[in-house]
Fold these 4 entries.
Entry 1:
Amino acid sequence: MIYLAGPAPRETDKLPWHPEAINALHAQGFEGAVIVPQSLNERATLEADEQQLSWEFQAQCRANVLLFWVPRNPIDMLGLTTNLEWGMWYSTGKVVIGIPPEATMTLPMRHAAHRAGIKVCDTLDGTVRRALQALASPNTR
């Protein structure tokens, strides 16, 4: 089971990266479960946000691999929750990470990945490949 972690667009007219990741997983032969942590409802209350975060944490615990894709930019994909999730999981051996070259404010993530021996991919396809390798052999992260 693969969990897709990373920022989602704040603006509803922007397309999320998750469908592209799912297509890449299928194109590379993956037939397992993919967890996409996007709410289908407009979250307007603290209670709804807390329920979403609780659901996401439980899903992250169940996942075999957490695929972090961090196309961060300060305008519509800040990824503050992504920072927390990365900090919770990067040293567990369950994560792979990709950060495109144009992403901003990613130095701390890159530094933590380097210290943990995790290779940072610079394309979504490369990150997907690494996630599939990690499923097959957990020591390839």
Entry 2:
Amino acid sequence: MAEPQTGSDELALRAAEVATDVTEAEYEQERQRKVAAFLRAAGSGARGAGRGTRAAWRRVEAARRRAGWGTGWLAAQVTAMAPRLRVRDQAALREQFGGQSAEEIADALIEGAARAAGAAGGVAGMWAALPVLTVYPVEIAAETLVLVGIEIKLIAELHEAYGRPASGNVAERMGAYVASWTHRRGVFMIPGGVVLAAGSPLARRLRRRLAARAGRSAFSLGPLLTGAAVGAFLNSRETRRLGRDIRRDLRHGALPGL
């Protein structure tokens, strides 16, 4: 996986941190607080005010404008974010979940990720309800990256829980899990490799999946608090469904991991 470009680093790194922290947070209030801080920084930076964190977001927004808005830019952020996600290996998961079975750990991982995704959608909806002009494209990008990070982390940890991790170094493993997210399959089921070369079928499919995911994120920005409710519901449902799809492959796949 290629090194992310300077200027994209800040967004990818922050999105990875938030996705990781929100997934592993114990309490709903904590999850909402972390996502709210991320979206607040995104919106404030895009409006071009402030110093410190908001100034960093101004640089991110400038990089986004240079690259052009679209799924190609989002795909670049996802591939830059993935290696930065903190993934618990099988030993860490067994220790954390008290020696539970792979099935029990998978249940906990899927439900935890679904709650995290729901919190992200709900918080985005609440921000849209505030009497402040929000910069929707930037907020949609921010929410989408957090959601995709939550789901890629879930995929990676499901593979660990079942003892089927992808092989290779961190970048290669996380590249495999990005491909897994793109195809909604376990990494051993992916045809044609996992190279995200420009113009490749996988790269095009990743962009299509991100377009659909960003479209769902836009529901979070609906009127009043209806956006919060819809965003939380859609995000939780989609993440739970994805986790179950991956778990089904891991249960029944006959081929070894990549």
Entry 3:
Amino acid sequence: MEDAVSMGKMRSIARQTALQVIVLGALATPQAARAGGNEAARKHYDRATELADDGQPEAAIVEFQRFYDLTHQFAVLYDIGQVYLSLAKPVEAVDAYQRYLADGGKRVPAARRAEVEKEIERQNARIATVRIRGLPQGAVVRLDGKEIAKAPITAPVRVGMGTHTIAASAEGYEPAKIEIELVGEDRHVVELVLAKHLVETPSRRLVAPMVGTPPHVSPVSPPLRAAPMAAEPAPALPPAVPSAPMAAAAVADLPASVGVPAELAPPMVPPVSSQPPPAGVKVAAPSVASPLPVTKPGRGLRMAGLVCGATAIASVGAGVFFGFETRAHSNSAQSAPVYNSAYAARGRLYEDLQWTAFGVGAGLAVTGALLYAIGAASSSAPAVALVPLPAGAGVSAEGTF
């Protein structure tokens, strides 16, 4: 803790010393440089020296630059380089010093030139270069939140030592950024890949079939009507078989003049005889009525429940697959020597697909369980079918209970 405090005090003392050097350098600037231009230019210069003396180097740089824009006096570029030096910004300091030497030319004293060239060499040892690749045309690149260029960037970007954030953005792409740590004279390559925006399409809605509606009939379609069938001629009946006279007591007691209605007449039961029928006469075999079909209520619901359950299992399997893909892309992005934002974008996509598949699977599982339970409950109701026996001798009941 004491070491950190002492380091902070040393940095503060070093900054104050650098600012005092700036003020002394400004006072040592030739009078023609300070008085050149007009009254507004002199005010900017005097205000810059006051701000530097008060410990406000950023504001002092602005005032020095205003003075230079009005007068184009090269001497003030040396002061700007000194201020950047106190702010530990080697790139800006080297730029100001080089402009000072270029604009001053032979007017720069030999001793001052040697001093500046030595300082430029010392600051270059604290500058790293970064090459930025993989960006689409026109992408905006920002260094520590400040826009520096637009893609394509052919020349390397000079950056001071320390930790920096490089971000890029472009229309129609997802933004990407990376944080890098650089040392002096480092040569670094950054691969920034911007993923394109994904176009989301609405998923198809699953419409549950209505109970009691055939699968090939729309629920809103008009009811089906059976077409009238053409009348067919009645089949020819076989010749009647002569039967024995009826021996019903009730009929025998009726008067001869009173006719017996057909619906009140007793059934004509042919006598059972062991003798074969006469030659040429065919006796029709007694018909046995086929039993009515036994319906199975709830079967369709149970089948729908099973289908939903199978689909839920498939959806959960898909979610597990997308989960493995998410982990694989995340591991690839972390272990890659060069940051690749495409891995991160694909990892987020697979993660979204994973949870979507799990959600759909859970919903289908609950729906399938409900449908199967409802179908099983409706199947418990007894279904009875009446089956008449041959010759009307009795009635049999069949059913599912």
Entry 4:
Amino acid sequence: MHIPDGLMDPMVLAAGWLIALPVVAYAIYKVSKTIEEKTVPFMAVLAAGIFVAQMLNFPVGGGTTGHLVGATLACILLGVYGSVMVMTVILVIQCLMFGDGGITALGLNLLNMAVIAPFATFFVIKLLKRQNQYVSTFTASWIAVFLASTACALQLAFSYSLSGGEYGIEGIIALPAMMGWHALIGIGEGLVTTGIIAFLAKVSPESLKMQIGRPEEPEPTLKEVAA
């Protein structure tokens, strides 16, 4: 799902930065005001785990790749703003040190995986707060991955159309490649995320209460979800 340099129309690249940066900046502000010292090592370990999972890329056609995202796990454990911050750190490191995703395209990658995916998780879990916690976790995981990949596919298709084929990937290729494969990847992510949450609920329930930088309206806790 990482977009490389040289693939997107400059106007689309600029739009990605203009949308993503204010959200990321606000998330960092919220987290910096509310984070506790004991939460920092937990965030680092979580970021490392998601980082490794995201590095396992595989081609899905049309010059695009697929991988797990991890935003739902981060959102459940750290809250939506904590998730935005963790995903941002992961994507910046991947871009600058491993060449996974382009520097000019970082705004779009942040928009897809550090903004759309965490907020999709937040709203889905809020909507399903009266459902079983594992049902809501699985559903949020799948929707977050699918929406992020759909946004990426639409950006690729729009770049192709806007540039007359000079940039991007034709929609007839990008949309089924990204959305089709990530519909399957979302199932895998849902199973992995639900399994991790179930494990933590048994061995470390306190880790499920470490949400930071939460919005003014409190996010649903797993106890509220399960109620």
